[in-house]
Design goal:
heterodimer, A: alpha+beta, Alpha-Beta Plaits, two-stranded antiparallel sheet, 2 helices, 21% helix, B: alpha+beta, Cytochrome p450, five-stranded mixed beta sheet, 15 helices, 11 strands, 48% helix, binds protoporphyrin IX containing FE, binds iron/sulfur cluster
Chain lengths: 72, 389
């Protein structure tokens, strides 16, 4: 699973950080989502899916079948 | 097409103040969205599209063509009075103060506030009214922390809040108290302008004071008071009344700290204190394949959506504090989704177990079915909750 967040859409409510704190956090200044782990381990996948569904801004995109952001 | 019969859309079923009226369930089953007359003491009767399914409520509340419209009186600084870029500009100034981390940092203060409320309950003795001594003081004092109300002013502040938000006092008394509260907020803002405190209002003054007028800042203070007071007081009173009627579930909240977070989520889902969210379409929008036209009013029923069986394979009409956490719309959805929700969760997570731990034999002092529920107010709750232990 690979996660992308769109900071410009984020409403900074923090549901993601509440549900999957190992993967999402919020910037101190304005609460915008920050991604702690773009390719989280298996045990985080369920919480990440729940966080994605509960995000009021549709700011979280999941790519279930990818594991790495770039091939470099 | 407008239904000839009006649906009391915020309405709660006869016999169970927590359940929606049957008409809402019927509307939920219809494929076609209903247009009905909504009786509203505040706005006068109006015609509106009623949205009751979980997915539909989410989709309309997230639609940027749906505006607050004239559903609330305009108030400078109040986020609920703004839409679009003006709304996000103002909201951005506040989000940093309401993160999950900030809510965690406020925990010790909240614990202190809850302890002091529990002492007042104990002092009031057998028959104490929890609404007066517990559910109301907690949010008031938490807001004092957010606004930086000095300790010396807090008793006055509590009194003014109680009167200004009391539905039983006369309109004149309420207006006078609201005016006094506004004057008090203006004074607080002036003080923060001189030396910004380390709290929500102080931070806004420090970081954005140059971009905001005094009346916008006072409006922010007032908004936090109004949005964060009645909602918490109501959720606490409704949740306690509910648990007193389900002693086995009360025992879970009292005895199992690992169950607290899930229980609070279930209580939020079930109580849905802000039962309806009114909007107006700024352009044509679509819900599934159905059109809502520009200028039409829309009312989203949080109460019905939170029990939408389409959302899960569970029996959502029953309270079950142990069930796997269900999604709910108690804090709304989309750009106006409750700014204070992480703080709200923290207040409930601290307050409920603390109450049942301090008074392990807590029970109602009147039969539960005689409690006076505020079923028609904008925010649902219990007017008085006398208890013994
Ligand atoms: C259990 C308690 C609470 C409930 C059920 C609740 C519910 C809601 C709901 C449903 C909305 C959205 C209204 C709409 O979309 O029309 C909202 C907005 C808001 N809430 Fe809460 N709330 C609670 C506690 C709080 C607290 C503690 C605070 C802060 C001290 C707060 C501050 C706000 C603010 C500022 C807004 C306006 C956000 C905006 O328009 O962008 N709320 N709340
Ligand atoms: S849940 Fe969505 S809107 Fe809220 S902080 Fe996370 S990404 Fe942003």
């Amino acid at each position: 699973m690979r996660i992308e967040v769109d900071e410009s859409r984020c409403f900074a409510v923090g549901n993601c950080a509440l549900i999957a704190p190992a993967v999402f956090d919020q910037r101190d200044e304005d609460g915008t989502v920050t991604l702690l782990d773009a390719t989280p381990p298996e045990r985080e996948h369920e919480p990440v899916r729940a966080a994605t569904l509960r995000c009021p801004a549709s700011a979280i995109a999941l790519h279930e079948n990818e594991t790495r952001a770039h091939d470099e | 097409m407008t239904d000839s019969t009006a649906i009391p859309i915020g309405g709660r079923a006869a016999g169970c103040p927590f359940a929606p009226v049957p008409e809402l369930y019927e509307a939920q089953k219809d494929e076609e969205l209903r247009r009905v007359t909504v009786p509203s003491p505040l706005l006068g009767d109006f015609d509106a599209v009623v949205v009751t399914r979980y997915e539909d409520v989410k989709s309309v509340l997230a639609d940027d063509q749906l505006r607050m419209g004239g559903s609330m009186p305009y108030q400078a600084g109040n986020l609920l009075s703004y839409d679009g870029p003006e709304h996000s500009r103002l909201r951005r100034m506040l989000t940093g103060s309401f993160t999950t981390k900030r809510a965690r940092e406020l925990r010790p203060q909240i614990e202190g506030v809850v302890e002091s409320a529990l002492d007042t309950v104990a002092q009031a003795g057998q028959g104490a009214d929890l609404v007066k001594h517990f559910c109301t003081p907690i949010p008031t004092l938490v807001i004092c922390e957010l606004l930086g109300v000095p300790y010396a002013d807090r008793e006055d502040f509590q009194h003014r809040t109680a009167v200004a938000l009391d539905f039983n006092t006369s309109r004149e008394v309420q207006m006078r108290q609201a005016a006094e509260m506004e004057a008090y907020m203006a004074g607080l803002v002036a003080r923060h302008r001189e030396s910004p405190g380390d709290n929500v209002l102080g931070r806004v003054v420090r970081d954005f004071g140059g971009e905001l007028t005094d009346s916008e800042l006072a409006g922010i203070g007032n908004m936090l008071l109004i949005a964060g007071h009645e909602t918490i007081a109501s959720t606490l009173s409704a949740a306690i009344a509910l648990l007193l009627g389900h002693p086995d579930q009360l025992a879970v909240v009292r005895d199992d700290p690992s169950a607290t977070d899930g229980a609070v989520e279930e209580l939020l889902r079930y109580c849905a204190p802000a039962a309806i969210l009114p909007r107006q379409a700024a352009g044509d929008i679509c819900v599934r394949d159905q059109k809502i036209k520009e200028d039409e009013r829309v009312v989203a029923s949080v109460l019905a959506a939170n029990r939408d069986l389409g959302a899960a394979d569970q029996d959502l009409d029953n309270l079950d504090v142990r069930r796997p956490v269900q999604r709910h719309l108690t804090f709304g959805f989309g750009p106006h989704q409750c700014l204070g929700q992480q703080l709200a969760r923290m207040e409930l997570r601290v307050a409920l177990p603390a109450l049942f731990t301090r008074f392990p034999t807590l029970r109602p002092a009147v039969p539960l079915d005689e409690l006076d529920y505020r079923t028609n107010a904008l925010v649902f709750g219990v007017n008085a909750l006398p208890v013994t232990w």
